[in-house]
Amino acid sequence: MVKKKHGIIIETPMEARQAEPGPLILLLLLISVSVAVLAMAVVWFVFFRS
Q1: pLDDT tens digit string along 1-50?
Q2: Do residues 1 and 16 make contact, with C-beta atoms less than 8 angstroms apart?
Q3: Using CA atoms in the order 31, 37, 43, 48, what is the torsion angle rounded to 10 degrees?
Q4: For 27-39, what is each residue's pLDDT tens digit?
Q5: Coil, helix or strand for 48?
């Protein structure tokens, strides 16, 4: 439900994006942690493997 306050339309975040679901936070977290672990493994293999 759209509300007006001082002539400005006030919407909830769900209304503003028209109820379209955003990216899954868990998926973003898993991808970013995986990339970080992979990058650290590459650094370890290149510089510290003897």
Answers
A1: 667 778 888 887 777 777 666 677 888 899 999 999 999 999 999 998 87
A2: no
A3: -170
A4: 889 999 999 999 9
A5: coil
pLDDT value of residue 44: 95
Q: CA gyration radius for the chain?
A: 22
Is the sign of the CA dihedral 40, 46, 48, 50 positive or negative?
Answer: positive
CA distances from 19 to 12, 13, 15, 16, 27 (A): 10, 8, 6, 8, 20
